[in-house]
């Protein structure tokens, strides 16, 4: 399964991305070397992937795997926890992990009148919803929600790479980015391929 997306919506350097071989080649490692930002609605084990041990991951679960833009940081936000992770561990990979069974995003789409701590829902509408409405105007129903889930996750990865400390590590080749979308029903993982702008089976991201 491949989900074809509009490449022009996002700006990534393919050299900043890693692939599944980064984990397969060190499959026996128990070093905590991977930051994972996952959705709070994804359950207790978003790191439960077959090609890497759970001890590899420093996990931050946040509503809709949301990453605030660096110019809109607030006290005690996600980046504070990210900085702790990089201080305490030699993190070499950063994964933003969304999932197709997300309950947060459909709820945001149904009701935008509730509390919006940190303006996360407002950022969601300004980025992902606007992009999907403009770029994929013919999508409706489940296909629309799926596309919003995918685009939202990619925008969060853009926010992550825009952080100066993350950008510095990327430019020094000390960190690799990954974007995963998990199919909750099949446990299959799609990965973002910045060369073509699509989500492809993770096995193809070598």
Automatic annotation (TrEMBL):
Enzyme class of the recorded protein, top EC level: lyase
The region annotated as signal peptide is none
**Which SUPFAM superfamilies does UniProt cross-reference here?**
beta-carbonic anhydrase, cab
Q: What is the lineage of its organism?
A: Bacteria, Pseudomonadati, Planctomycetota, Planctomycetia, Planctomycetales
Cofactor(s) of this protein = Zn(2+)
Gene Ontology molecular function: carbonate dehydratase activity; zinc ion binding
Annotated protein name in UniProt: carbonic anhydrase
What InterPro entries does the database record attribute to this sequence? Carbonic_anhydrase, Carbonic_anhydrase_sf
Q: Which Pfam families match?
A: Pro_CA
Q: Which reaction equations make up its catalytic activity?
A: hydrogencarbonate + H(+) = CO2 + H2O
* Keywords attached to this entry: Lyase, Metal-binding, Zinc
């Amino acid at each position: 399964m491949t989900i074809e997306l509009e490449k022009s919506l996002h700006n990534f350097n393919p050299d900043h991305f890693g692939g599944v071989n980064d984990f397969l080649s060190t499959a026996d490692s128990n070093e905590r070397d991977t930051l994972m930002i996952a959705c709070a609605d994804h359950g207790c084990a978003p790191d439960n992937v077959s090609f890497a041990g759970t001890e590899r991951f420093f996990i931050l679960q946040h509503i809709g795997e949301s990453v605030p833009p660096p110019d809109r940081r607030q006290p005690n936000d996600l980046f504070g926890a990210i900085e702790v992770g990089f201080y305490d561990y030699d993190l070499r990979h950063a994964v933003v992990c969304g999932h197709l069974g997300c309950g947060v995003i459909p709820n945001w789409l149904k009701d935008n009148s509730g509390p919006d701590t940190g303006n996360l829902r407002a950022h969601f509408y300004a980025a992902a919803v606007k992009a999907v409405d403009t770029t994929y105007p013919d999508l409706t129903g489940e296909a629309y929600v799926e596309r919003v889930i995918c685009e939202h996750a990619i925008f969060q990865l853009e926010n992550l790479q825009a952080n100066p400390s993350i950008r510095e590590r990327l430019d020094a080749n000390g960190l690799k980015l990954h974007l995963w979308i998990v199919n909750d029903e099949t446990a299959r993982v799609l990965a973002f391929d910045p060369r073509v702008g699509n989500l492809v089976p993770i096995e193809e991201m070598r």
